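Today's session is about reading a structure prediction critically. Students often jump straight to the picture, but the first step is always the sequence itself: look for stretches that repeat, for charged clusters, for runs of hydrophobic residues. Only then move on to the predicted structure, which in these notes is written as discrete structure tokens rather than atom positions. Here is the chain we will use throughout the hour.
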Amino acid sequence: MKEFALIFRLKDIADFKPSPEQMQERMNWLGSIAAQNKLADKGNTLLPILGSAKTVKPDNVVTDGPYTEIKEFISGYIVVKVETIDEAVEIAKENPIFKIGGSIEVREVLKRD
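Below is the predicted structure for this chain, in token form.
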């Protein structure tokens, strides 16, 4: 089996704090992946608040977060274990993030031993 990171992106900071109903939908989605034994890493949430991120650039230039430079921000990730990227995409398609205008980037993970 291969592992794929599902990277969650949001356009609006207001969407970062989901309603209880939205949170339940997300947990149900995650639970369905775990029930199929396809969840390799439950991932984490990445905070989009001032002071929670820095960007380091060449010549030791450091800025506060990526927020002024991108239209979307990464809100979190999980890792699934499946046979193909197409299977990972099908799992991603079921996520409720699309109802609020979010997106999911699917990337194969290169495991280093």
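Discussion point for the tutorial: The helical segments are 20-35, 85-93.
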